[in-house]
Amino acid sequence: MSIGIIGAGQLGRMMALAGYPLGMRFTFLDKTSDTPGAQVGDIVLGDFTRSDDIRRLAEQVDLLTYDVENVPVEALKSAAGDTPIHPSPALLGIAQDRLTEKQAFAEHGMATAPYRTVDSLVDLRAAIDELGMPAVLKRRQLGYDGRGQRFIRQAGDIESAWEALSGAPLILEGFVDFDREVSLIAVRNRSGEMAFYPLSDNRHEEGILRLSIAPCADRTLQTQAESQIRSLMDAFDYAGVLTVEYFEKGGELIANEMAPRVHNSGHWTIEGAATSQFENHLRGILDLPLGDTSPRGHVAMINCLGQMPALADCIRYPDVHYHDYGKAPRPRRKLGHITAVRPDRASLDSVVDELLAVVRAAEATSAEC
Ligand SMILES: Nc1ncnc2c1ncn2[C@@H]1O[C@H](COP(=O)(O)OP(=O)(O)O)[C@@H](O)[C@H]1O
Ligand SMILES: [Mg+2]
């Protein structure tokens, strides 16, 4: 079975690494061969926003999937021809716009932050009057890792936020004073079988994920999230992994955004769950029976940003695993991650403290250079 992955980033690379033992073969589409995927699979050089380039990939493979969220849906559909694409391009299109994403959440009984669309400074002022401050102004499309958004805390921030973001459709969201951020990684196969990983607790630093810990929640919250996502996936006859990011406030879940793909907050599943999100994504899109999503204990994943720590400093701890994506260092860039598995939460917390110190020390050294 030959699989084409649009985008050759670390997500595609980890997908391929999970699929080789199952007898699958991988070809990536990306602009350069200096990408994590190109180190582990064939590459078709091209632009994933161009139909012709996607077609060149589609012609070589049995099935298409993607590791990037901004593939234009029309180009994707017209290029694919008879080659199946999973996950659902329809849900991909919805998730690409924060407005349609919130509307889909509402249709499936999921609470969201209050919001207003904003297309002018007049709209923005009116929206602030209605939603109050603080609030968050966001580009509706193409945001990631906290880019394309501005917090508005006082009247003096309104114009600067408008100037920074105007020129694209915007949305103003009421600020959610959350207790924490959690995400759920779900998977469905083409026959409709579904499986869910335990919710993970996600800590961000300057808009970028730093740490995920799972499992993190009680049965009530888990069941609530699962039933919402089950309804969403069934409605789109979805296949593959779907991730939903939530704010948790006072024991309630407020949906923030979704990603119709494998997700950074699920990297802990590689060594921390019976079956990884990457293998389950492949099982889902190929309509194979899904794998067990049970955690192997208490698991943490730490992102390495801008500089990798030394391998030996990390793997000297038992059941700690090192992933270097093979990317060139750049400030704050996601270069790799480290996973720790422990039998109980207290011993996990203590190894996380030590690993975070190792990771931060390496990052600080590189920042000084
Ligand atoms: N309405 C909000 N209220 C409070 N914090 C928010 C809100 N929206 C975003 N944030 C914070 O900013 C981070 C990034 O926002 P998000 O919408 O997830 O965009 P991105 O696509 O960059 O991940 C969130 O993880 C959260 O910490
Ligand atoms: Mg996010």
UniProtKB/TrEMBL annotation:
Reactions it catalyzes: 5-amino-1-(5-phospho-beta-D-ribosyl)imidazole + hydrogencarbonate + ATP = 5-carboxyamino-1-(5-phospho-D-ribosyl)imidazole + ADP + phosphate + 2 H(+)
Pathway participation: Purine metabolism; IMP biosynthesis via de novo pathway; 5-amino-1-(5-phospho-D-ribosyl)imidazole-4-carboxylate from 5-amino-1-(5-phospho-D-ribosyl)imidazole (N5-CAIR route): step 1/2
Keywords, sorted A to Z: ATP-binding, Ligase, Nucleotide-binding, Purine biosynthesis
GO molecular function: 5-(carboxyamino)imidazole ribonucleotide synthase activity
Residues of the ATP-grasp domain: 102-286
Pfam families: ATP-grasp (PF02222), PurK_C (PF17769), RS_preATP-grasp-like (PF22660)
InterPro entries tied to this protein: ATP-grasp, ATP-grasp_carboxylate-amine, ATP_grasp_subdomain_1, PreATP-grasp_dom_sf, PurK, PurK_C, PurT/PurK_preATP-grasp, Rudment_hybrid_motif
Domain of life: Bacteria
Entry EC number(s): 6.3.4.18
Database matches in Gene3D superfamilies: 3.40.50.20, ATP-grasp fold, A domain (3.30.1490.20), ATP-grasp fold, B domain (3.30.470.20)
Family indicated by similarity: Belongs to the PurK/PurT family.
Quaternary structure and interacting proteins, as annotated: Homodimer.
Function: Catalyzes the ATP-dependent conversion of 5-aminoimidazole ribonucleotide (AIR) and HCO(3)(-) to N5-carboxyaminoimidazole ribonucleotide (N5-CAIR).
Protein name: N5-carboxyaminoimidazole ribonucleotide synthase
Upper lineage: Bacteria, Pseudomonadati, Pseudomonadota, Gammaproteobacteria, Natronospirales
